[in-house]
Amino acid sequence: MSDSHLTFFSLSSSILALLLIFIFIFKRKQTKPKLNLPPGKMGWPFLGETIGYLKPYSATTIGEFMDQHIARYGKIYKSKLFGEPAIVSADAGLNRFILQNEGKLFECSYPRSIGGILGKWSMLVLVGDMHRDMRAISLNFLSHGRLRTHLLKEVENHTLLVLNSWKHNSTFSAQDEAKRFTFNLMAKHIMSLDPGNVETEKLKEEYITFMKGVVSAPLNLPGTAYRRALKSRSTILKFIEAKMTERVRKMEEGNESLEEDDLLGWVLKHSNLSTEQILDLVLSLLFAGHETSSVAIALAIYFLPGCPQAMEQLREEHSEIARAKKQAGEVELTWDDYKRMEFTHCVVNETLRLGNVVRYLHRKALKDVRYKGTLIDLFY
């Protein structure tokens, strides 16, 4: 078994440790005076500074927009992004304060433009009891036992598919390959879709269009990325709903396939969610499971050649695991193999520390909050 194979698995399995905040939405009462708000500017009407903020940049930096604004206003400044007023924070102390007061002073909240694409029942925008229930459903499906018996094998199979497709001395995009790997893995895990099938590739095309709109200016006009994303969202949901209808029919007829032991089937059997809720849940899990993992894998590949010592230690760790498996006459990865990848876990953690895997997370102030003299003001 190749070193790259084992490294790919570890990277994709450890991403959920990520926690990073850059932005939270604030609202301010129109009748209140503006007292001690952070410096900054609101930009153009409606769009604000969204276009400049979304300008592409390297994932190893925070981008030109953030650099310029931090240099001019400091690490905490006000702006208008995605059509709504916002306070942007690149301050570690404030970000920690927000996390420590999650559910007390702040809650998860995305701008209406992003929420309109993700769906009102998406786990990324839900708060309170409904978010807890949706999260519990997902975690119950992805139990420790299932990780060991199902997901590990799926990760290994999809990794081998990617590695075996590479031609000798060929050139490829690490990020494109990482996205292919994570999308196919999530599609199989969620809806039992096989990689390379016509319907899987069609879904992938729609998903790419959808993703471009999520991180675009919120202009619902013909020809814009946002409008195309809304259209792709509708197509994706129709595809998922057709799969649901087919699965329900099979369950009623007693013709369920063991190969369809996936999240969609589990939710249909073990939850009381409505059709709309299931559709948004599946879409949000596809979104959350794909994006961060693929970027982190690509960043690890980018960072490793810059540290030959880490590269060699990583190679030694995986070579030792491969030798032990060969001596034992084993072929497939086991949970014990994964637990032995201690240095690999260090590589994953360092990748997340160095790389900008997530551009921003949104939080809404539930009440007026003061932090070191700065007012985070609520308005409605």
TrEMBL record:
InterPro entries: Cyt_P450, Cyt_P450_E_grp-I, Cyt_P450_sf. GO terms for biological process: brassinosteroid biosynthetic process; brassinosteroid homeostasis; sterol metabolic process. GO terms for cellular component: membrane. It comes from the Eukaryota. Its main location: membrane. Keywords: Iron, Membrane, Metal-binding, Oxidoreductase, Transmembrane, Transmembrane helix. It is a single-pass membrane protein. The chain crosses the membrane at residues 6-26. It is found in: Membrane. Pfam families: p450 (PF00067). GO terms for molecular function: heme binding; iron ion binding; monooxygenase activity; oxidoreductase activity, acting on paired donors, with incorporation or reduction of molecular oxygen. Belongs to the cytochrome P450 family. This is Cytochrome P450 90B1. It comes from Arachis hypogaea (Peanut). The lineage of its organism: Eukaryota, Viridiplantae, Streptophyta, Embryophyta, Tracheophyta.
